[in-house]
Design a protein that fits this description.
Elements: H1 2-23, H2 27-41, H3 47-69, H4 73-79, H5 92-110, H6 115-129, H7 133-149, H8 156-172, H9 181-186, H10 192-195, H11 197-229, H12 233-255
Helix pairs in contact: 2-3, 2-7, 3-5, 3-6, 3-7, 5-6, 6-7, 7-8, 8-11, 11-12
Length: about 260
C-alpha cells in the first residue's frame, strides 16, 4: 500500500514537472505581462477572481505550448533541449493527445464564467492551431480580463487598451526570434532576424520608442479629455483612477 502511494506521488510529481517545463519559459514573457495588463485594465480586483484569471491564463498557455511544441521538436532540440518533447519526457503522439484533452478542459473551465470567455477560449484554440501569435496573445489578455472584471463584456477603456496592446505586439513580435536565429537558420526558416539581421534590429530601435511615445501621448490626452467632458461624481472617481494609472505608468517608465 505504501509502495503504491509512493509510486503514485512520484508519477504525479513527474507529470507536474512536465507541465511546468512546457510553460517555464513563458512566465516572464506571457504570465507576468498579461496579469499586469489584466490588473491595470480591470475595474475590479476580487482575490478569488484574480486566482481564477491566473488559472485560466496558465491552462490556456499550457494548451497552446503543448500544441506548438509538439510540432517544433526539431527546432527545440537545437534551441531549447530541456523542453518535454525533445528531452524525451513525453512523445510527440502523447503531447498531441494531451493538447486535445487540454482543449476540452479549457472550454469546460471557461464555461464556469460567461459566454464571452467560452468564445475567447474557442477562438484561442483556432489561433493556436494556425500559429497566430498575435491573436493568441490578445486572447490571453481578453479572457483573463473578462474573468477578473466579473463582467460579460469589456468597457470602452479596456477595449482601447486591448487594441493598443495588439498593435504593439503586431509591430514588434519578431523580437522573439532574435534568440532562436541559430536553430531557425539550421532548419531553413526565414524569420525577419535572418532575412534582415541588421535591419530588423534598427527597426526595433526606431519603432519601440515611437510607439511608446505615441501611446503615452494618446493616454495622457484621453485622460485629460475625459476629465473635461465627464463631470458627474461617479465619472470623476473613474477619472481620478485613470489619472493615477497614468502617473504609475510615468513612474514605471522613469525607472526602466
Amino acid at each position: 500500500m505504501l509502495g503504491l502511494a509512493v509510486t503514485t506521488l512520484r508519477s504525479g510529481l513527474h507529470h507536474l514537472e512536465t507541465a511546468w517545463l512546457f510553460t517555464r519559459s513563458d512566465f516572464k514573457t506571457i504570465i507576468l505581462p498579461v496579469m499586469i495588463f489584466t490588473n491595470v485594465v480591470s475595474p475590479r480586483h476580487n482575490p478569488l477572481a484574480l486566482s481564477c484569471s491566473l488559472c485560466w491564463l496558465w491552462f490556456h498557455l499550457f494548451q497552446g505550448n503543448v500544441s506548438n511544441q509538439s510540432y517544433s521538436a526539431p527546432e527545440d532540440l537545437l534551441n531549447k533541449p530541456w523542453r518535454p518533447v525533445p528531452s524525451g519526457r513525453i512523445s510527440v503522439k502523447d503531447s498531441r493527445a494531451l493538447r486535445w484533452g487540454l482543449m476540452v478542459f479549457c472550454l469546460g473551465f471557461s464555461s464556469l464564467f460567461n459566454l464571452n470567455v467560452v468564445i475567447t477560449s474557442a477562438v484561442f484554440t483556432v489561433l493556436v492551431i494556425n500559429l497566430l501569435n498575435v491573436g493568441a496573445y490578445v486572447s490571453f489578455e481578453l479572457g483573463s480580463t473578462l474573468i477578473l472584471s466579473e463582467k460579460p463584456s469589456l468597457d470602452r477603456t479596456s477595449i482601447t487598451a486591448l487594441l493598443c496592446s495588439a498593435f504593439v505586439i503586431l509591430m514588434t513580435i519578431h523580437v522573439q526570434d532574435f534568440a532562436d536565429v541559430n536553430g531557425d537558420r539550421m532548419l531553413g526558416r526565414r524569420t525577419l532576424p535572418i532575412v534582415a539581421p541588421e535591419g530588423s534590429r534598427i527597426y526595433i530601435l526606431c519603432v519601440l520608442p515611437s510607439i511608446s511615445f505615441a501611446l503615452a501621448s494618446f493616454w495622457s490626452f484621453g485622460v485629460g479629455l475625459r476629465c473635461f467632458l465627464v463631470r458627474d461624481e461617479n465619472g470623476d472617481h473613474l477619472n481620478y483612477w485613470l489619472y493615477n494609472v497614468r502617473i504609475f505608468d510615468s513612474y514605471y517608465l522613469s525607472m526602466t
